[in-house]
Amino acid sequence: MNERPLGIGIVGTGQRCMHFFGPHIRAVPDKARLVALADRDETRLQSAVDDLGGDVRPYNSVESILRDPNVDALVITTPDFTHRDVFDMALDAGKHVLCEKPMATTIEDAVHMTRRAKESDPTVQIGFMLRYAPFMVRLKAIVDSGIIGDLVQVTAAEVVEYYHGAAFFRRWHRFRKHSGGLLVHKACHTLDVINWIVGSTPALVSAQGGTDTFVPKPEAALRCRDCELTETCLAAYDLDDRYHNYIYQTGIERADPTRYASDLCAYNSEKDSVDNASILAEYKSGVRLSFSFATTGRRHERHFVLTGQRGAIHASQADGVIAVEPVGAEPETIVVLDEYRDEHGGGDTLLVDSFLRCVAMRERPVADVVAGLHSVALGVAATQSIDRSGDVVVLRPVLAQFD
Ligand SMILES: NC(=O)c1ccc[n+]([C@@H]2O[C@H](COP(=O)([O-])OP(=O)(O)OC[C@H]3O[C@@H](n4cnc5c(N)ncnc54)[C@H](O)[C@@H]3O)[C@@H](O)[C@H]2O)c1
Predict the structure, then answer these.
(1) Is the distance from the beta carbon of residue 302 to the nearest atom of ligand 1 less than 6 Å?
(2) Distances in whole angstroms, Cα of residue 354 to Cα of each of 10, 36, 120
(3) pLDDT tens digits, residue range 44-75?
(4) Which of 59, 65, 261, 372 is an S-S bond match for 103, by CB 3.0 to 4.6 Å?
(5) Domain around 168
(6) Are residues 118 and 136 in the same domain?
(7) Are residues 295 and 313 both part of a single domain?
């Protein structure tokens, strides 16, 4: 066990740091101490230091935060394409790592990071909070109980709420070179939960998909502030800020809108990510997956039909309902608490608790690097298959080394 609270540094003081990791780590002082923050953008860094307060030390580079001897563990909340380099530097410096999802934007980077983590001593965990969310934990436990027999098939869907879906097409996420595309960046959580429940390695993937909603609108402007359609536009940037855009809230954006503007038109922005897709996959164990992803929902929803050799489970995360329908036994409906029904399912704080426990007890995290790799591999392979009109992408050889 650690004798003092774990010293945590966070690199990347954007949305995820300021809306979750920073405040949460501050809230558990008996277990962890927020000692340092790093960002290459000095305005964002200063604002984060002012907000999180205390004796947190600011650094303007990854190299400098890693030289701080009080940093025992690094939380990586920089954009996805930077994860590999920051991750390598953190492990070179001997720090424990909690790396946000997706672990990487390419299979090559994810394979490299998996190998690095396996050869390194520090604890490495990936930010898959759904593995800790009570709804998902319950769903997996029911499948693992064997009540529907061996799993044969998974049918799943994720529908992202429209305004949230649109937000991806205003920010860096809209380019594959930054995020891998939304099947890697966003669908990674649902794909990971499915991989975890199936308990096998993805082997074959094919997909169809495209960008059908967030397509150019000649009648709209490039910025919401210049657009005459905002009254009726479903994606108009919301100045009441219902998504709590950190740089808007803090005034950073208003002080320098040319540099930090968040009101890019989700339709007219340049992009190369799909906004919807249908994926078919087969696992090494033979379990088959059919998964649909879309970005135009009224609310955020993940829906699952898990079919075994003796029955099925129907589950809706947004409704918090798991209906267990075994053949030859009584059906049962489980309803989880309201606070476990949102997109993160109450898993965020449990993910951090688990990381701190894994570091202290030298345990292997449930959301480990192989989970990170499998989810990146499925998302990247599906994107490649879409580019090749649905050709099957074979993942077996590259993933087999970590079975
Ligand atoms: N688990 C989840 O559900 C969840 C939710 C949101 C974001 N995320 C992940 O968290 C990460 C951050 O997302 P975000 O929305 O906070 O992004 P963001 O753009 O709001 O913030 C990223 C910050 O990183 C800084 N940065 C970029 N490159 C850097 C570098 N090389 N060195 C130092 N700082 C650098 C930027 O200046 C910015 O302040 C992403 O990987 C994202 O996928 C995960």
Answers:
(1) no
(2) 17, 21, 19
(3) 999 999 999 878 999 999 999 999 999 999 99
(4) 372
(5) 130-214+271-345+367-400
(6) no
(7) yes
Instruction: Please give the average per-residue pLDDT across 22-32, as a whole number.
Output: 95
Q: Which tokens belong to 298?
A: 């009224």
pLDDT of residue 225: 87
Residue with tokens 């090749």: 388
CA torsion angle for 127, 320, 340, 146 (degrees, to 10)?
-60
19 and 100 inside one domain: yes
Q: Tell me, yes or no, whether 138 and 119 share the same domain.
A: no
Between the CA of 268 and the centroid of ligand 1 the distance, in Å, is 23
How far apart (Å, rounded) are the C-alpha atoms in residues 85 and 264?
29
How far does the centroid of ligand 1 lie from the alpha carbon of residue 167, in Å?
14
CA–CA separation, 106 and 126 (whole Å):
16
- Tens digits of per-residue pLDDT, 156-175? 999 999 999 999 999 999 99
In a domain, 200, yes or no: yes
* Residue 178 near ligand 1, beta carbon < 6 Å: no
